Each structure stands twice: as structure tokens, then as C-alpha cells.
Amino acid sequence: VLEGLDAFPINRRNEPIIAIGGGVVTDLVGFVASSWRRGVPHINVPTTLMGYVDAAIGVKTGINFQQHKNRLGSFSPPERVLLDHTFFQTLPHRHLLNGVGEILKLAIVKEPELFATLELYGSDCINAQFQDKTSWEILSTAVESMLAELVPNLFETELARVVDFGHTFSTALEMQDKLDLLHGEAVVIDMLLSSIIAWQRSLLSRNDLERIFSLVLTLRLPLSSEGLAPDLLMRSLMERQHHRNGVQRVPLPMGIGSYCFVANIGLEDVTQAVIFFKEWLQDNYYGNEIQNPTRIFQYRP
Ligand SMILES: NC(=O)c1ccc[n+]([C@@H]2O[C@H](COP(=O)([O-])OP(=O)(O)OC[C@H]3O[C@@H](n4cnc5c(N)ncnc54)[C@H](O)[C@@H]3O)[C@@H](O)[C@H]2O)c1
Ligand SMILES: [Zn+2]
Question: Fewer CB atoms inside 10 Å of the end CB: C or N, the chain?
């Protein structure tokens, strides 16, 4: 991209680079734009659900380096973000579900009505490639909810961020090539582990834990227990602790729509959560052939 820019020079102020693509493209272009000639404007046009509700609407860019997630990057506010959900018509199913993971994140810790909407209509919206009216409402709520968190804390002066829910253990999982997990897939697994820890600490009721697990099944989000080694997850937690300036600041759900931050998760919490998760998977999860998604965890309104 840098060579392209050199070969095709742009005016520094009034010819923004336009990034059209998924999170990889908007992250890469945003990073390049923030460093080329010490910073030129750029515009994001996300074409994936992940980009639409998350990657393209924030101001952060991230590039993996030395097997570390987002070790390079910049705060690089796009001049504009153009949102067009019709791009999702051609998005492969796996990438659609990948973005649903980030919507579910906001629903669990911040948006109880969005959570209820996903319980009722989430599967239909996925089947409709997020093109129908309910999907539009879900997308709008998700984007507004995300922006409400990002805008007052654009440059992360506050390091305790609820949008980091699901982004503690996922970092290491996502970087394991052999697991082949997309960002949103790793986030979903992290959210379930975090929810178990919250339940183990009596922060989350059994009923709310069941609603979360049940919704993941209803939406048929891909799950796997492969590679869930407690020591790997602890290393991910430690790395996040450095990122959050020496304090864990892990967001945990305290019910659907509320959260708290904890700073004392240890190996025992993680080990127990992994055991619970693996047992639950064995009992409830049928991979691509889920027979009765709510067999055990029936949602009781
Ligand atoms: N900067 C941030 O705040 C932030 C937030 C979340 C995720 N991310 C990053 O975003 C990346 C993931 O982004 P992603 O999930 O969009 O993946 P991606 O950019 O890899 O896109 C997924 C795939 O879909 C294809 N594609 C894109 N739009 C399409 C369309 N409309 N129809 C058909 N195919 C299409 C792409 O070519 C690619 O193969 C990760 O690297 C993650 O770390 C960044
Ligand atoms: Zn994310």
C-alpha cells in the first residue's frame, strides 16, 4: 500500500484514502494513513459485519507482529465511515457469524433489549444475511452502543473498557494458527469462559448464564474446546494485564445488560471454567448438526 501511495501520490489534505473491505483492510489502510507523510486522512467503508459494527467505526488500527495480536497500530480516526449493509449479501456465512460475535458482546454486557431481540429474531436475521428490517434495527443498536462506549474514551485514557468483554482470553486463542479461529469466534469462546467465571463468583445468576449459552446455540455460533489450555489462557490474561497498564480490568457480566470489572482472576478460576465449558460442549453441542439447541438450557422468560 505504501509503495502504491508513492507511485500514485495524493494531496496531503483533500484526497483521503478510501478503504473498502473487511477489518483487515480498514486496519491496514488506517495504519498506513496514520504514518504516510506523518498522517493523511482516510475513509472507511466496511464490507463485513465485523467491520460494520466494530473494526471500521473505531479509531484504532492493529497489525499483528512477532506472533502478537495488534502489537503495532495507531489511533487513527477515519474522516468518515460509510455504512452499507447490502455488502453482507455476499458475505460468507462464517464471516457473518464472526460479526454476530461482536453484536452478542454488546448485548450481553450492555443491551438487554438487544439480547432479547437476538433470542427471538437473531437466527432469522442471520438467514436473511442481515438484510431485513429487524436486522437493520439490530445493526443500528449495535453501532450506537459501540460508539457510546468509544466516543467518550477515544484514545483509551480510561483502560477499564466494557467493550473488552470477550477480549481477554481470545487474544491467545486467535493467534494459534492451528486452531484457525476468526477474531469473533475466539471472542465468543472467551465470553462463555468469562460468563462461567462470573457465575462461579456469584456475579451472574444461573438463569442468565443459561440464557447466554442458549443464545449461542440458537444462533449456531461455532464453538470448539480445542486448544483451551488453562496455562495458555493465563498467558493471554497476563498479556492483557500489561496492555491495561498492570491491572487485569477484566469485564464480567453481572446479569444481562450489566457488568463489573475484576482484577483477581487466577489459574483456579480459569481451570474450573475450562472444565465446565468442555463438559457443557459435550452435553449440548453438535457442531454443524445441532439437533435441539435448547435441549438442556431452555430459556425461561
Ligand atoms: N481496529 C479495530 O478496532 C478492530 C476491531 C475488530 C476487529 N479488528 C480486526 O479485524 C480483522 C477481522 O476483520 P473481518 O472479520 O472483517 O475479516 P477480513 O477483513 O479478513 O474479511 C473477511 C473475509 O471476507 C471477505 N469479504 C469482505 N467483504 C466481503 C463481502 N461483502 N462479500 C464477500 N466477501 C467479503 C474478505 O476478502 C475476507 O476474505 C481482524 O484482524 C481483527 O483483529 C479490528
Ligand atoms: Zn473484537
Answer: C
